[in-house]
UniProtKB/TrEMBL annotation:
GO cellular component: nucleolus; nucleosome
Keywords, comma-separated and alphabetical: DNA-binding, Nucleus
Protein location: Nucleus
SUPFAM superfamilies noted in UniProt: Winged helix' DNA-binding domain
Domain H15 span(s) in chain numbering: 12-83
Entry protein name: H15 domain-containing protein
Source species, domain of life: Eukaryota
GO-annotated biological processes: chromosome condensation; negative regulation of DNA recombination; nucleosome assembly
GO MF annotations in UniProt: double-stranded DNA binding; nucleosomal DNA binding
Transmembrane segments: none
Amino acid sequence: MATEEEDPRTHSLPPYPQMILAAVAASGDKDGTSLSAISEYVESSYEGQLPPSHASLLAAHLTRMTEAGELLLVGSVYFRPGPEAP
């Protein structure tokens, strides 16, 4: 039987905004990062650790971050605000 130290699900996840910003940065795509690309990055980075409500949490945090100006949504892709953003 696995101990708590060996169980990857017991490790704490970074906050969703941190995971989202990491996904956008990792994509390096000047044309923006789609919701599916962000989700795939987070899922592959934290495989087996995400809650069942991951899709809903991701969507909610993307909405909040966009409303707060932490991300820009242009069409269906996300950008970090800055001089290179559209």
